[in-house]
Amino acid sequence: MVDIRELARLSGVSIATVSRALNGRDNVRPETRARIQHLAQQLRYTANAAGRALARQRSDLIGVIWETRYATPGRKHAFLGELLVSLKEALDEAGYHVLLVSPSQPLPAEGDDYLGIVRKYNLDGVVLMGVDEHAPAIGELVESTVACVALDLVVTGRRSTYITSDNRAGAAAAVRHLHGLGHRRIATITGPRHLMPAKERYIGYREELSRLRLPLRPAYVVEGDFFGEGGYAGMRRLLDLPQRPTAVFAAGDAMAIGAMRAAAMAGVAVPGELAVVGFDGIEAASLIYPALTTVAQDADRFGTAAAELLLRLIGDPDARQVHDIDLSPCIVPIRLVVRDSCGAATT
Amino acid sequence: MVDIRELARLSGVSIATVSRALNGRDNVRPETRARIQHLAQQLRYTANAAGRALARQRSDLIGVIWETRYATPGRKHAFLGELLVSLKEALDEAGYHVLLVSPSQPLPAEGDDYLGIVRKYNLDGVVLMGVDEHAPAIGELVESTVACVALDLVVTGRRSTYITSDNRAGAAAAVRHLHGLGHRRIATITGPRHLMPAKERYIGYREELSRLRLPLRPAYVVEGDFFGEGGYAGMRRLLDLPQRPTAVFAAGDAMAIGAMRAAAMAGVAVPGELAVVGFDGIEAASLIYPALTTVAQDADRFGTAAAELLLRLIGDPDARQVHDIDLSPCIVPIRLVVRDSCGAATT
DNA sequence: CTGAAAGCGCTTACAG
DNA sequence: CTGAAAGCGCTTACAG
Known about the structure:
2 copies of one chain form a homodimer.
Chain A: H1 4-11, H2 15-22, H3 30-43, H4 49-56, E1 61-66, H5 77-93, E2 97-100, H6 114-120, E3 125-129, H7 138-143, E4 148-151, E5 160-165, H8 167-180, E6 186-190, H9 196-211, E7 221-223, H10 228-239, E8 247-250, H11 253-265, E9 275-280, H12 283-287, E10 293-296, H13 299-315, E11 331-332, E12 335-337
Parallel strand pairs in A: 1-2, 1-3, 3-4, 4-5, 5-11, 6-7, 6-8, 8-9, 9-10
Antiparallel strand pairs in A: 10-12
Chain A binds a DNA duplex (16 and 16 nucleotides) through helix 2 and helix 4.
């Protein structure tokens, strides 16, 4: 492997000139630059990252802290995996690479030192995903001057902000869709109350109900767990009601599918006797029969927006300006995907 | 942030001693070491990664080349995402961090320089995932002396090997399960012929058939695409046969679910009139109704095994020894998950 | 057991 | 426009 010294020797210049030529400094004679560039390409020279990082005091590295200890194994990772892909692609395009730095110690994690990792690797910025609201280690990070974007987690700091799908608007769209089909008795199966997306989706449901001048019936609101089991159990309770809902908005696709199973087992036809809308847009939603109408989150756009936001934070020289920058992309639009699980109201 | 010089000053020793003490060298007086360690912890000193990498000529970094340009967007990522999580956890435990280095240029990718990235970052090893067999850029990497493990992709080189689920045994287990239920007319919907997992699963199907002294009927072998659409189309063809199969082994869950939809739309009851087994163990398999019996790949174990294998390659001083080391974990065991989509044969 | 010094591969003022 | 030199933060022979 050729290093800068070798390249300098072969180009007949000093290493300083090589560095300047390759880094696009303007104070290099065009012919010199061309010659060096040509040679560099031919020899496939790339500046060593460690040397570069040391000299420039920055790494061109973005840390992604993907906390996998809180999520139930095998859950939620699908969406985050998708998201990571698009995040990485957007960051790559801006010349950054992604360092995956998830703490791996067992969970009573006093050793989690996100900020320490940032310093150790001279990270230019950090993305938090899958991190619990109560994770103790994030406080220090958010209070620091490190550029940081959290996904689906409310944090704000000097150079920290967050990004989330438009959960509220998504839930409202679901309710509106059902209303448009003639449904008036619309129930919801929510996520666990303490999670932000669950809260937001419920608020969206409630607000749209009131906008449509529909009553909010306590019996039509059951708490689920974002998993199939919770959807199943929630639907069972709704089916046992003296006056059943004609439509259900489940705040997650897994719950929606669980609800559909409960309906099927009770002999209630979907979409014939019951309309179901989910949320998330997981793969299963399009595979099942009948295919699930759902409010789809856009992992691609989410990741791209997160990258953009982070780059803006990094690029912003003044730490205090975080509130001034355009935060519009923090709310990622969602999309109602209409499939087969909703029919017109008959009752 | 305190650096090694500061720490040395406060400890009253030279930076050389600090380095030795913290890196566990044996030639340090116990009291000196204790004092330094204590102070380091208190001041939360961590050696700067760039300085360390430069001096040691290694980075403690593993590159994960996650090729996302070949896969249809939104497909296959779920499993790889899961896998990445467990891979990363296993690597973390061994003291490595993961650098995500997926090439992001548009696909006619002459610029893909995996080896260049390895040199640039002094990567200690590389994992290839989602990479197409025909990707031009991997040849050079595999021929080099870089430790490299490919996932679900057959490569071998001086320090390169691959790891895959036991596709053959999985397919055989599926067929055996159906046979045990009394089925004798067992069809299969395969994946695209050119993909290794598709090939292997088909071989497993064929071999088990012959082991059970069941005929291989060409009409019972239809090629799919690993997606729901292919499963649907394949099932349609099987349903139109003069003598229908009583059971279908679909070489992927998405295809299996597509097949179930085709059956449902044709009024053929699953599991009553038709048994279906899938492969992969995606989330949807457990969510749908009836729940899908499937041959589940173990993402967790897959990732852990890949990490182990890579660490062994890295640790092996002699490049030629790659064929001598124990390669048993290269084949990750699979597991038949019996659910509701298979009943006893009636015809 | 410890320290002074060289060196890892770069970038960037500073001179010229 | 270019080069010599200092320095980024470490580790590791080499002396002692």
